[in-house]
Amino acid sequence: MRKLVLPIIIIITSIILIARIFYLQVIDETLKLKSENNAIKKVFDFPERGYIYDRNGKLLVANQPSYDIMVIPREIKNIDTLELCNLLKIKKEYFIKKIKKAIVYSPRLPSVFMSQLNKREYASFQEKERKFEGFYAQKRALRDYQIQEGANVFGFITQVNEAIINQNPYYNSGDLIGKQGVEQEYEEVLRGVKGIKYLLRDKHNKIIGPYKEGKFDTLSKQGNDLTLTLDYELQKYGTDLMINKRGGIVALEPKTGEILALVSAPTYDPALLVGRQRSKNYTNLYRDSIANPLFDRGLLAQYPPGSPFKIITGLIGLQEEVITEETGFSCNHGFSYGGGRFMKCHDAGYSRFNNGIYLSCNTYFCSVYRNTIDKFKNSSKGVDVWANHVKSFGLGDYMGTDLPTGKKGNIPTSKTYERIYPNGGWKGSTIISNGIGQGEVLTTPLQLANMMAVVANKGYFYTPHIVKKIKGKTLDKKFTTKHISTIDTKYFDPMIQGLADVYRIGTAKSLQVKDLEICGKTGTAENKIRVGGKTYQLKDHSIFVAFAPKENPTIAIAVFVENGYWGNRYAGPIATLMVEKYINGEITRKDLEKRMFTESLESEYKKIENIIYQRFPQQQKAKDSLTTNIARKEEEVN
């Protein structure tokens, strides 16, 4: 019996292998489709990407037809290379380069020879396509932007590279994919599903009909439409207000976390990154490293928050019971601390909680911060308790929005100061600048807008997000999950009153809007750059945060204007106008609007450019090239 075991095993194994081979080669016909079968040609049908709308149903992004010339190197036979080059208006060197690249990818599979032809170019090729065996036209859809704003929100479409193809089997050479913005974050939702037809060829490589009568063919499925939380009219208005300025605006709906406006300035027309000039235009935008039009300042720019941070300092002071509303501190144009150092303040007198807010008294909030840290037996404990409160407002961490980019900002903890002061000896007065939004504290405009949403909601927020609705799908639950701050609800009322008084009798009284009660806070942040080992002092950043109306707020906003002097010179008027535009739909403060539309900060930015160009002259060439290409694009549009 033992002698029979081995032969039986061999016989059974052989039967299994033969049966499997028979199944794969005879019964399972899909194996032929997966192989590089010369008798079967795959033809893809690319779906339209999903359309993108704003919260009010306005169409923002649609599609337009485009055509790629594809090549299968192995099938090129006896073509007139010179005629093809003349037809497509390309040089012979380009032809050779693209064929070599296609061969490296695969001699049997199609590669993009020439991308994004318009209708006229495609028609010229189609007339003579039969003469160029191995070449064929592939229809695709490119984005068609209905507006000129929001490039930082949308992102753009580009061809997949080899790394993406190797990583994701869905994509083939020449396929398009979303990069940056919602195009990237919602790529799988927007792209749809490719259709495919399998065509049978004879020995002469001629198409003789569908393979197996189309049994394995599939239809394409259009991508799902997106409805953004964005209010287009507000986005456009913010973009216009920021012309000739640099900075960011973020506006949220406090009760939902929906992003109403996400403005980054300077910006660019999203149509620049569509069509044959996309690569060149992107390169020029990328090389402009001074103005940084590709840099989304609303999500990525990390600034010292300045005086708006006093809002959190005050709330923590109340929560930790180191102050009450009646606690006061004397201010004599500044705050003395740490070995004779002195922090200037424009206030003078005796500040309590309310007027400390609406007059933005440095002495008051430095005192509150110092008392908060010194309440605990050691400064390390005090800073960590303080940092925990601050982070409950969404600061110091990337907030997890549905956009593929963002920065965490910085909220220092005891570990921060253990590194800075390895020998110890630090205390509340050593790091006093944190209390007024300077020091090691950094925030993004999105985080400050979210901070104001927390105050408007009296203690909670929802994760900010840019997509309101996906056709046929539901939103991620994280966008409908409430986050609670560490501050008790009762402490928000005195803070909200103080912020309302900022407009009524405080640092923003010149920005009042009739019959609209806005709660806000001005801010100014010191601004320096270091180039070539030397530090240059520049004009301060202008900052403003607000929400409105005071009762049942519908908008919270943060505005940063780089080199904008002080809070209510640029950021304050822009925030006020944005709030009035959203709530009332029209502007009564025409004086503010006219000033924001006409005034420019380009002279301040020119100073920065001159400093950098002296050190890096090649960047001047990049900017000049960008200007030329934008002008050319505008001529094409017109």
TrEMBL record:
<keyword id="KW-0961">Cell wall biogenesis/degradation</keyword>
<keyword id="KW-0645">Protease</keyword>
<keyword id="KW-0133">Cell shape</keyword>
<keyword id="KW-0997">Cell inner membrane</keyword>
<dbReference type="InterPro" id="IPR017790">
    <property type="entry name" value="Penicillin-binding_protein_2"/>
</dbReference>
<keyword id="KW-0573">Peptidoglycan synthesis</keyword>
<dbReference type="GO" id="GO:0009002">
    <property type="term" value="F:serine-type D-Ala-D-Ala carboxypeptidase activity"/>
</dbReference>
<dbReference type="InterPro" id="IPR036138">
    <property type="entry name" value="PBP_dimer_sf"/>
</dbReference>
<protein>
    <submittedName>
        <fullName>Penicillin-binding protein 2</fullName>
        <ecNumber>3.4.16.4</ecNumber>
    </submittedName>
</protein>
<keyword id="KW-0812">Transmembrane</keyword>
<keyword id="KW-0472">Membrane</keyword>
<feature type="domain" description="Penicillin-binding protein dimerisation">
    <location>
        <begin position="47"/>
        <end position="209"/>
    </location>
</feature>
<dbReference type="Pfam" id="PF00905">
    <property type="entry name" value="Transpeptidase"/>
</dbReference>
<feature type="transmembrane region" description="Helical">
    <location>
        <begin position="5"/>
        <end position="24"/>
    </location>
</feature>
<feature type="domain" description="Penicillin-binding protein transpeptidase">
    <location>
        <begin position="247"/>
        <end position="575"/>
    </location>
</feature>
<dbReference type="InterPro" id="IPR001460">
    <property type="entry name" value="PCN-bd_Tpept"/>
</dbReference>
<keyword id="KW-0121">Carboxypeptidase</keyword>
<keyword id="KW-1003">Cell membrane</keyword>
<dbReference type="InterPro" id="IPR050515">
    <property type="entry name" value="Beta-lactam/transpept"/>
</dbReference>
<keyword id="KW-1133">Transmembrane helix</keyword>
<dbReference type="InterPro" id="IPR005311">
    <property type="entry name" value="PBP_dimer"/>
</dbReference>
<keyword id="KW-0378">Hydrolase</keyword>
<dbReference type="Pfam" id="PF03717">
    <property type="entry name" value="PBP_dimer"/>
</dbReference>
<dbReference type="InterPro" id="IPR012338">
    <property type="entry name" value="Beta-lactam/transpept-like"/>
</dbReference>
